[in-house]
Request: fold
Amino acid sequence: MAMELAAAGYHIAVHYRQSADEAHHLLVELRAAGATAQAFCADLADEAQCEALVPAVSTHFGRLDAVVNNASLFEYDDVESFSYARMDAHWRANTAPAIVLARALHRQAATQQSQACVVNVLDQKLWNPNPDYLSYTLSKAALETCNTLLAQALAPRLRVCGIAPGVTLASGPMNEAEFSAAHRLTPLHYSSTPTDIARSVRFLLESPAITGTTLLVDGGQHLAAQARDVMFLTPKTEQGL
Reply:
């Protein structure tokens, strides 16, 4: 996403929490491609640090036109293992920061008499639910509702949109064969790639008539009912192919 937007002429603020080395590596890539870029450290689960992030970026660059909320906690739980602590951790990572950052961006846009946009990265799972990753799913469902509520509350200065990827990167114990099988489970036999997601983000940022809605970028995965998360389906699928 950062490289796609940099190629379109955006200056890039790279947020990180603990991944300083990875953030520095991305800065090197961005600057080598001719982009202006800077990294900013903040723990989004800490309300004060989250509140300070947009002003810090705006001070450095002089303005801020867009925020892409792609930071996420993705830890397994189900009904039996659910706890207040698990739910709180996912809420603090996946939901609350998006509200705080949107509010801060709106304040800046109002002050500068400019237009701005937020893109929240969601999950096709919300349109094709299963009970795996319960706390994660609930936090993303709340974030999807925020698209509507924030779009209503912060218009006309701020647009709020979402993208819902499908299987994009291998995660957890998933191996390459299982990852390929997961792609073939979709109606298009093709899910989403990082390039698809990046292009979708750019499309929403550059579409001034779109707000309060989500673009599903998942090869139609949300159309195929699944009783469990795809991570638990692909090993069986591979054995049956």
Summary: Residues 22 and 137 are 27 Å apart (CA to CA). Residues 236-241 have pLDDT under 50 and may be disordered. DSSP finds nine helices and six strands in the chain. The radius of gyration is 18 Å.
